[in-house]
Structures are given as structure tokens and as C-alpha cells.
């Protein structure tokens, strides 16, 4: 798979940019509505994608090689995770539907429902835990 093909797998849901809480005892991961400061809440894309690692050093760069380590941390509807697990893409995925808006129309994306991380103290993030849209 070329780098361009790999990048095209992103469905534009914005869920990977949500801050997550991991239970140290169970390794269970919970999504919050608290988003990375770089997430554009309307496009559900990183506002500084090319330089994100410089601005947010903890940002995980997904590659076929890193998926084995981080797949459990990715949203259940994530195309990268689905591919890693040998599962098909959903009908709303832009590569299937041919329309980048279907991820939003299907209620999968985080469009308009996030809170920027700089507005919520980290100790309050558990008050923002959500069920993953689309699961």
C-alpha cells in the first residue's frame, strides 16, 4: 500500500483525535468529547496535520507497522483498525460511498460535538466520557 493509499483510509470522523481514558487495571479505553487542540470540529480533520507531531508530541502516527501496538486504542469504526482486524469498511466510508459527507450523515463523526482540551482540566475528562458514535 502506498502512503497515499494509506492516508485515503482515513474516513474523517475525528474520533482518533479525541482524548481517551485508559483503565490501568483492565486496559479498557473510554472516549471523551474532549478533543485535541488541533482538531477542527467542523471538518473533523487535524488543523495542522503536516506539523502535528511538532505541536503535539504525543500524537500517534498511524502506520501499518504501528497498528499492532495501537489498534486497541483506535475507535471501533476506524478504517485502519478494521483493516488491521481483517474486517470490511462500512457503507458510509468515503472509499465505499464515494462521498466524504456520508461519515457525517451516518452520525459516525464528531462534527460539532467536541470540546477543545484547553477548555477542560484533565482531571474532569471523565465527566465527558461518551459512547462511540456508530457502534
Automatic annotation (TrEMBL):
<dbReference type="InterPro" id="IPR005358">
    <property type="entry name" value="Puta_zinc/iron-chelating_dom"/>
</dbReference>
<protein>
    <recommendedName>
        <fullName>UPF0260 protein roselon_01960</fullName>
    </recommendedName>
</protein>
<dbReference type="InterPro" id="IPR008228">
    <property type="entry name" value="UCP006173"/>
</dbReference>
<dbReference type="Pfam" id="PF03692">
    <property type="entry name" value="CxxCxxCC"/>
</dbReference>
<comment type="similarity">
    <text>Belongs to the UPF0260 family.</text>
</comment>
Amino acid at each position: 500500500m502506498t502512503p497515499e493509499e494509506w492516508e485515503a483510509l482515513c474516513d474523517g470522523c475525528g474520533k482518533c483525535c479525541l482524548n481517551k481514558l485508559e483503565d490501568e487495571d483492565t486496559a479498557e479505553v473510554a472516549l471523551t468529547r474532549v478533543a485535541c487542540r488541533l482538531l477542527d470540529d467542523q471538518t473533523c480533520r487535524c488543523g495542522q496535520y503536516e506539523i502535528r507531531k511538532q505541536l503535539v508530541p504525543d500524537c500517534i502516527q498511524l502506520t501499518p507497522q504501528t497498528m499492532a501496538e495501537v489498534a486497541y486504542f483506535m475507535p471501533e469504526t476506524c478504517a485502519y483498525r478494521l483493516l488491521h482486524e481483517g474486517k470490511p469498511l462500512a457503507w458510509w466510508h468515503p472509499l465505499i460511498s464515494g462521498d466524504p459527507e456520508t461519515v457525517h450523515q451516518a452520525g459516525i463523526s464528531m462534527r460539532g460535538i467536541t470540546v477543545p482540551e484547553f477548555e477542560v482540566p484533565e482531571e474532569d475528562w471523565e465527566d465527558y466520557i461518551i459512547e462511540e458514535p456508530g457502534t
